[in-house]
Amino acid sequence: MSTPSRVRRPRPARGAPSSRLILMINQTLYEIRPLACDPTIAEKAYRLDKEDGSVYDVSQTPHGPLCDCPDFVFRRDGLDPSGCKHVKALLAHGLIEGHRADVAAARG
Questions:
Q1: Cα angle 105, 68, 72; round to 5
Q2: What tens digit of pLDDT does each residue of 12-66 get?
Q3: 18-27: long-range pairs with CB below 8 Å, 24+
Q4: C-beta atoms surrounding 102 within 10 Å
């Protein structure tokens, strides 16, 4: 009497692993993707995709972080150096840096 052999499934080809960066801000999930940016305008940029289809772009510029969400554009830009919740979250996780003067003072 022969014993049944196990059927082996082929392994997927080796390569870069599939991954996503998910950030939760106030119980809302955002998928974060890096964006290519012109280095004369911004050093880093990220796109935050919200589950409801909203999309916000956050960038680190020589003048400080920028976000294109309505809260930043209408309430924070030039008024509140800490920025909107998107900027605060990316700062907290080290994806972007704050204003250059703040960064220099912290390091100095």
A1: 60
A2: 667 767 888 999 999 999 999 999 999 999 999 999 999 999 999 999 999 899 9
A3: 23/48, 23/89, 23/90, 23/93, 25/85, 25/86, 25/89, 26/85
A4: 14
Distance CA 83, CA 36 (A): 22
Q: What is the DSSP string of 86-97?
A: HHHHHHHTTSS-
Q: Which candidate, 54, 59, 49, 55, places its Cα nearest to that of 87? A: 59
Token readout for 48 is: 């935050």
pLDDT at 11: 62
DSSP one-letter string for 8-35: PPPPPPPSSPP--EEEEETTEEEEEEE-
The enclosing H or E element of 55 equals strand 55-61
Q: Are 68 and 84 in contact (CB under 8 A)?
A: no
